[in-house]
């Protein structure tokens, strides 16, 4: 029988005897979240269940359900977690704040072309037909959208008190989302790079 | 036993005795295509089968399969058919060709906010995970995308021989697609209208 430091129901406890329980719990949670995003990106909503994710993360189904009681909990938390990670990474790319606008436009568009966007897209589309998922995803999308807008305004050094600037930045983020969609079925990198270069130049002119 | 003009397997033949057979066949086909787009927009790919569409269109399953042997045939044809209808309607809005750019930007964005975009989005997302669907939808998306680009260039009076103009128009269409995505879960009309007004003004300045 294990004590508090090595409970029976923690399979890694024997190998990681010095890792405090709450850190192990956090690590398990993060493994589940990362596996959930990868699963959603690869297999879509229909192929993404708590069991599939638990197996992929090497976690028991019971442990997965302890962290995330429902399928909706797991996948909305996963998309939110990765969105936060990406926001942090984006800010870290430009540690001095407002930066070269062409580089910022390129980095913003990059947010929408990886597995996170693909996962989020599957979640959005599923939510559009599933009443249980829709309010959760709508709320999440609004929150992530506001945060991304805030980062974009900061890094572009955009003065939103000037008329039209807010809508210019919003349109730019809509364009980034559209570029993500265009990358769903084919590798659109070559075309995208030219569009991003041109729109980086236009932002430079427009935002002054 | 019915003759050629009123075959047993055409339930409407008795009511429409003077409609030539090929016109009835075309009408059946169009009813199936319209029902397929509506079904895809409302229920997504998972809920969209040939049987469901046939019932919605008031057509026998056998007749539906005569027109569209596979599920992939039916839904790619449906999205293509409606995309063509929309292109024709868009050109008809501006019969004299190049027109007021703000009005053209608004009309282009409208292409991406209705049931067709919703249906196409479900098809794209399903195709990203289904090997049987992906090549068909990829080819369709490329074809529809080229046609939309051509219309946008014409109506905006954009001179693509000038550096950057092609990419400006492409980015505008990517923005329109992104605005369609933002409208998936919530009614985004108020925000969208402001973005469209601002980007209409940007296009006016940029395209000269």
Structural notes for this entry:
The structure is a homodimer of 208-residue chains. Chain A has a domain at 71-207: Tetracycline Repressor, domain 2 (Orthogonal Bundle). The longest helix of chain A has 23 residues, at 21-43. Chain A is built from 9 helices and no strands. The termini of chain A are far apart. In chain A, helix 1 crosses helix 4 and helix 4 (71-93) runs antiparallel to helix 6. By secondary structure, chain A is mostly helical. Chains A, B: Residues 49-68 bind DNA. Chains A, B: GO terms for molecular function: DNA-binding transcription factor activity; transcription cis-regulatory region binding. Chains A, B: This is TetR family transcriptional regulator.
In short:
Chain A is built from 9 helices and no strands.
Oligomer state of the chains in this structure: homodimer
* Fraction in beta strands of chain A: under 5%
Biggest chain pair interface: A-B, 48 and 48 residues
Number of strands of chain A: 0
Number of helices of chain A: 9
Rg result of chain A? 20 Å
Structural class of chain A comes to: mainly alpha
| Percent of residues in helices of chain A | over 70%
How much is the average pLDDT of chain A? 90
Largest sheet of chain A: none
Pfam families (chains A, B): TetR_N (PF00440)
Keywords (chains A, B): DNA-binding
Protein name (chains A, B): TetR family transcriptional regulator
GO molecular function (chains A, B): DNA-binding transcription factor activity; transcription cis-regulatory region binding
């Amino acid at each position: 029988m294990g004590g508090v430091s090595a409970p029976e129901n923690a399979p890694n406890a024997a190998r990681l005897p010095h890792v405090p329980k709450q850190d192990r719990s956090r690590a398990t949670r993060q493994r589940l979240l990362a596996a959930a995003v990868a699963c959603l990106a690869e297999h879509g909503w229909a192929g993404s269940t708590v069991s599939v994710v638990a197996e992929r993360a090497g976690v028991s189904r019971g442990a997965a359900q302890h962290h995330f009681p429902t399928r909706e909990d797991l996948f909305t938390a996963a998309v939110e977690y990765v969105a936060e990670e990406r926001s942090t990474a984006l800010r870290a790319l430009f540690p001095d704040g407002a930066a070269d606008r062409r580089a910022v436009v390129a980095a913003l568009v990059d947010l929408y072309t990886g597995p996170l966007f693909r996962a989020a897209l599957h979640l959005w589309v599923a939510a559009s037909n599933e009443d249980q998922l829709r309010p959760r995803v709508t709320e999440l999308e609004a929150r992530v959208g506001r945060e991304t807008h805030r980062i974009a305004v900061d890094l572009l050094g955009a003065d939103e008190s000037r008329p039209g600037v807010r809508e210019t930045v919003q349109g730019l983020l809509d364009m980034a989302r559209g570029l993500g969609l265009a990358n769903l079925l084919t590798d659109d990198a070559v075309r995208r790079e030219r569009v991003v270069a041109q729109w980086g130049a236009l932002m430079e002119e427009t935002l002054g």
